[in-house]
Specification:
- GO terms for molecular function: ATP binding; ATP hydrolysis activity.
- It comes from Vagococcus elongatus.
- There is one protein chain.
- 36% of the residues lie in helices and 30% in strands.
- The chain is of the alpha/beta class.
- The protein folds into two domains: 4-238, Rossmann fold, CATH 3.40.50.300; 256-340, 2-Layer Sandwich (Alpha-Beta Plaits).
- Helix 6 links the parallel strand 7 and strand 8 (195-200).
- It binds adenosine-5'-triphosphate.
- Adenosine-5'-triphosphate (ATP) binds next to strand 1, strand 2 and helix 1.
Length: 344
């Protein structure tokens, strides 16, 4: 049985004379032990969806079960008990500035009426888990962004939750610190078996740690599946934009291939898309040996996603027209995606 299950879940906000459909008939399930990412641009409905999962918002329609409990049926006291199984971390950490690191971590333990000596012991254990040994008496203001988020993570884990919800947890951090925090989340998932649901507007976060992804737009989940599948065969326009964000971080032009074709006029410009294990094969050198063409890589990026490789290369092929055609056909036969400038 799934740990989290949503069936046609809808959330509407009534404001003045208007109704805002923030979450629109959403279906998905999260299995125990998974890291499930929800990606979408601002206003897509991600935060609202996350808040539905821990009962901070009530569903307007649909069925939402978490940990085998239907949230809509819980009474106030049951809801408080239910929330103990769910930790949450935030983009801006939400730490108490007048409390030390250790006191911040102990807060949920105080609320759960854990005896003082046990609170201290547990907080020290958590400090060690998140790699902040010795910083317990510091104040949040004395810590770096990454360290603050580590405190946020320690606090969220204090009551041994089954589920950790992450609300844009790395959006305020620089790229290196982002990767360190993502690594910590991955470790928590693997070592403690905590199921993680995260929301983000960065495909990078999804690629780094998620097993599954759901793409959200205007309140709807428009596409979902294994990260690798969604990455390699994006169907919806919004998903393609996220994939593009990852593959060509430094190119902003709408039409990348046209841009290159104007700047490289010698040969034919093609975009080769490698999916899964194919990218590990030395296919480029094979083609160069087999056909009378030269291939130069103009731009490219190959990435590892869950032990498979995925990537796009933009190449310029020079040689006789017929040889170029044959070389491109060879790529297609090998399962490489080929898109050529000027071809329909
Ligand atoms: N409490 C509320 N009352 C009224 N409208 C709301 C409320 N919360 C969210 N909304 C609206 O619901 C829609 C979805 O917002 P939500 O914050 O869930 O999106 P998001 O994808 O998380 O975007 P962001 O990253 O900008 O927060 C928006 O139109 C927002 O204005």
């Amino acid at each position: 049985m799934s740990l989290i299950s949503l069936k046609k879940v809808t959330k509407r906000f009534e404001v003045k004379n208007d109704t805002i459909l923030a979450v629109d008939q959403v279906d998905f399930t999260v299995e125990e032990g998974e890291i499930f990412g929800i990606v979408g641009y601002s206003g897509a409905g991600k935060s609202t969806l996350l808040r539905l999962l821990n009962g901070l918002e009530e569903t307007t329609e649909g069925r939402l079960t978490v940990n085998q409990q239907e949230i809509a049926h819980l009474k106030a006291k049951e809801l408080r008990q239910f929330r103990k199984d769910i930790g949450m971390i935030f983009q801006h950490f939400n730490l108490l500035w007048s409390r030390t690191v250790l006191e911040n971590i102990m807060l949920p333990l105080e609320l759960a009426k854990v005896p003082a000596d046990k609170r201290c012991e547990r907080a020290e254990e958590l400090l060690h888990l998140v790699g902040l040994d010795g910083r317990g008496s510091a104040y949040p203001g004395q810590l770096s962004g990454g360290q603050k988020q580590r405190v946020g993570i320690a606090r969220a884990l204090a009551n041994h939750p089954k589920i950790l919800l992450c609300d844009e947890a790395t959006s305020a951090l620089d790229p290196q610190t982002t990767d360190e925090v993502l690594q910590l989340l991955k470790q928590i998932n693997q070592d403690l078996g905590v199921t993680i649901v995260l929301i983000t507007h960065e495909m990078h976060v999804i690629r780094k740690i998620c097993h599954k992804v759901a793409v959200m737009e205007e309140g709807k989940i428009v596409e979902q599946g294994n990260v690798m599948e969604v990455f390699s065969h994006p169907k919806e326009e919004v998903t393609k934009r996220f994939v593009q964000q990852e593959t060509f971080p430094e190119v902003v032009e709408e039409n990348t291939l046209d841009y290159f074709s104007k700047n490289y006029t010698q040969g034919k410009i093609a975009q080769l898309t490698f999916r899964g294990e194919k990218s590990k094969h030395p296919i480029l050198s094979q083609v160069i040996k087999e056909f009378d063409v030269d291939i130069s890589v103009i731009q490219g990026q190959i990435q590892e996603i869950n032990h498979s490789s995925f990537g796009t290369l933009i190449v310029e092929l020079t040689g006789e027209e017929e040889e170029i055609r044959a070389a491109l056909n060879k790529f297609i036969l090998e399962g490489v995606g080929v898109e050529v400038v000027g071809d329909e």
